[in-house]
């Protein structure tokens, strides 16, 4: 029952797969997705980075694509959206310094709307102060941030995802099938609840 309008907050050196795959998948499934970045407008691009797992002690990073934004951050209002997607990569590291981004993230939690975050997206959730008592997966190096923010770190396989009410999280892009399936189930449940309440 896709009808949800989804906001994706991203930025330069966002993880390539974690941005492009959910954006295209959700569009293909009939959802409306507006991808925004502070300081940029519709038609601008953000640089992406490809994080891969090649046997080193941490992921490797390579330059990815230019991802075209289709909405302007300064023109959107979180209140107009049904759900939020936060990709990982390097972007959450600096996006969490933006007060308007933090305010937007808090809106979705205060309103009980569905939120999907993956990998380093947990850095943004931690900075927004929305993880207290919530189970959250993330790239393992973000575990201290999740726990310092009062969250319960979900130590799951890299291909798994976890749902805690309206929050769906995963460690990295290999979890896309599970992460997106769980997120769409939460979206559909929220849409059904709204329909029944109307």
Automatic annotation (TrEMBL):
One Pfam family per UniProt: DJ-1_PfpI
CDD domains: GATase1_PfpI_1
UniProt cross-references to SUPFAM superfamilies, sorted A to Z: Class I glutamine amidotransferase-like
Matching PROSITE patterns: PEPTIDASE_C56_PFPI, PROKAR_LIPOPROTEIN
Span of domain DJ-1/PfpI: 5-184
NCBIfam families listed in its UniProt record: PfpI
Protein family (similarity comment): Belongs to the peptidase C56 family.
Protein name: DJ-1/PfpI family protein
């Amino acid at each position: 029952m896709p009808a949800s309008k989804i906001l994706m907050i991203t930025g330069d050196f966002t993880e390539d797969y974690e941005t492009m795959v959910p954006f295209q998948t959700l569009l293909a499934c009939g959802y409306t997705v507006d991808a925004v970045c502070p300081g940029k407008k519709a038609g601008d691009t953000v640089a992406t980075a490809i994080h891969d797992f090649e046997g080193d002690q941490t992921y490797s990073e390579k330059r990815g694509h230019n991802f075209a934004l289709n909405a302007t951050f300064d023109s959107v209002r979180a209140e107009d959206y049904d759900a939020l997607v936060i990709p990982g990569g390097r972007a959450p590291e600096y996006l969490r310094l933006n007060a308007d981004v933090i305010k937007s993230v808090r809106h979705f939690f205060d309103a009980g709307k569905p939120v999907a975050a993956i990998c380093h997206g947990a850095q943004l959730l931690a900075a927004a102060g929305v993880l207290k008592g919530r189970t959250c997966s993330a790239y393992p190096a973000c575990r201290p941030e999740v726990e310092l923010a009062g969250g319960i770190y979900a130590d799951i396989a890299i291909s798994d995802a976890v749902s805690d009410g309206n929050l769906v999280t995963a460690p990295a892009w290999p979890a896309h099938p599970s992460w997106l399936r769980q997120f769409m189930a939460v979206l559909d449940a929220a849409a059904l609840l709204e329909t029944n309440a109307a």
